[in-house]
Design brief:
The structure is a homodimer of 135-residue chains. By secondary structure, chain A is mainly β. Helix content of chain A is 0%, strand content 35%.
């Protein structure tokens, strides 16, 4: 096995259109956004309840994949650090982890936040963080 | 864009060889394991320090991808729940999230734990959870 193929299960719909709008990490003033799940995955949302904490995993499709080290937060005063020891979006497999709260559900559209991901970012997985839904 | 291709950056080397050895979630008695990073990604480990908390993302290569709902923890007394509201390994994109502690570093081999992933599981990303390495 030399590769694994992800299939987007949905997309982020956000007022954050690009780098100029985006805070560096979600909790720092990021807005809420809509997560539009593709209809064929609707059953995977069964039982979800507003107010619960989720982890959304995105594919950061605009991030570079050829960068292995950098200065955290692009701050040259911070020591050069391997990307596996940072949360930079640039990394060999640009997966984004977004802990967030489920604010509202409208069919297969979930309102979630706060989330700094750009509009149009593919969503590849959603997991519960609550023990209630352990599984 | 209809798919995103992940490239393994390393593999888990563990005494957990299959389902019969595996606890359901990491904290429930899972062992430590070695994470062997492929040599071409060595620079992405720069600056890592023993004792820090990491999130390792794996590709659960033995998990089914066609299951959208189930009973959490395979317990029929729990209500049928969508996989996006559980932590079941069976899901459209079988990504595993493993919060763990870095126990030791030997070149491109990291001793980490606790982790319930099977021996041979591909690792696709590693992120810092610490604010020190924020980026």
């Amino acid at each position: 096995m030399t590769s694994c193929t992800l299939k987007p299960v949905g997309f982020i719909r956000s007022t954050v259109k690009g780098r100029e709008d985006a805070p560096r990490q979600g909790p720092e003033g990021a807005p809420d956004a809509w997560l539009e799940i593709e209809p064929q995955f609707a059953e995977a949302l069964l039982g979800m309840e507003v107010g619960h904490e989720l982890i959304v995993i995105t594919w950061l499709h605009q991030a570079r994949r050829d960068i292995l080290k950098g200065h955290p937060r692009n701050d040259p005063s911070r020591p050069l650090t391997g990307v596996f020891y940072t949360r930079s979006p640039a990394r060999p497999n640009p997966l984004g982890l977004h802990p967030l709260t489920l604010r509202a559900i409208e069919g297969t559209r979930l309102k979630v936040g706060p989330i700094e991901a750009f509009d149009g970012t593919p969503v590849v997985d959603i997991k519960s963080t609550s023990t209630r839904a352990d599984g």
